[in-house]
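Exercise (ungraded).
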Amino acid sequence: MAKDMTLLWGSGSPPCWRIQIMLEEKQLQGYNHKLLSFEKMEHKSQEVLDINPRGQLPAFKCGNHILNESYAACFFLENQYKSQGNKLIPDSPDAQALMYQRMFEVLTFHQKIVEIVTYNFRVPEEERHDSAVQRNREALTAELKLWEGYLNKTDCCLAGKEFTLADVVFFPSVAFLFRLGLSSESHPVLAKYYNSLKDRASIKATWPPHWQSTPGPDMMKTI
Amino acid sequence: MAKDMTLLWGSGSPPCWRIQIMLEEKQLQGYNHKLLSFEKMEHKSQEVLDINPRGQLPAFKCGNHILNESYAACFFLENQYKSQGNKLIPDSPDAQALMYQRMFEVLTFHQKIVEIVTYNFRVPEEERHDSAVQRNREALTAELKLWEGYLNKTDCCLAGKEFTLADVVFFPSVAFLFRLGLSSESHPVLAKYYNSLKDRASIKATWPPHWQSTPGPDMMKTI
């Protein structure tokens, strides 16, 4: 079945990485994939637009189904391959409720990172303000404090002992932060989470290739 | 079981309305609820903060489970009450894939509305630019075109003939747009969708109370 899947992706993009981790977790290796370059604007190519009219990566086809939204792909794959690979939605109502709640809070967490990282791309020069940059950084600082608290209350993973969909969507953004120089000393609980999962098979197998060869900018060092 | 649920909500907030529709669809009437005022800043009250540390509405408790994120509440309720009320995740892989994909695209659709509506609240006066306002309006115009195309290809609902979770999360944002003066002539397919669902029992029963008594501003008239 994995032979019937095609993923167009960009290295280091958390939404792309989520789908890659998911495919590993569900033992769906062997899918077709193609690494494209954001710098060369390949995400606006016809090849991508044919799958994803938004001209964004990931562009993911699973048989005839188009699942470009990373959360959509995760839910669909978990539902269609329930008994294959790792089960990523827990049965217990407690863990399930916590998983869903955290999973959707991740969207806010990720958005706050994106607002800082993409500021100069998104905002034309004449509209940029140091006060906005400062506010975005303060918003991320407050957000990280919240997650340090959340993780302090759980065992290992976001919804308890088991690795779930919440971790599939959260880990890539956490790794991105550390890649951008986030301080482990100032964020010890997030650092512990990061270190406990970075060698998990599904994550190691899909680690962004260009992260291995080039260092990231120190954008998050003083957050 | 509904007696064990508490929803703190604000009138006209699409995320609050999603949970209200969901509770009706799953025949979970009789839950505790309290209407709070955004204008009076009641979403920052201790009562809300005790459930939702972000100080946002909805604040939703289902037994001991906290599900403030509207998507989290929808998924949890659907999963816990599978055989009660209407089934909102279709079995067919085709409809399911389409439902998930659209459901998560709704987040982008809704975000583009929010960026326009909250611009003056979010952005301090000295950082506001007409060019940014214009860009936000163009982004929503392009987004609406995409959804006109999507809806043109389906029967009645977002993922086909059946009302699904995708409609639970989409409808409140569509209704919000028409409340703000969106032109039916310029958006005939969205208007058809809106008109075909506005009298659905779950939607009618939860219609934002202040919308019935006061007209909305004409903010979206020229989109």
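Further reading is listed at the end of the chapter. For now, observe: The beta strands of chain B are 5-10, 32-36, 59-62, 65-66. The first strand of chain B starts at residue 5 and ends at 10.
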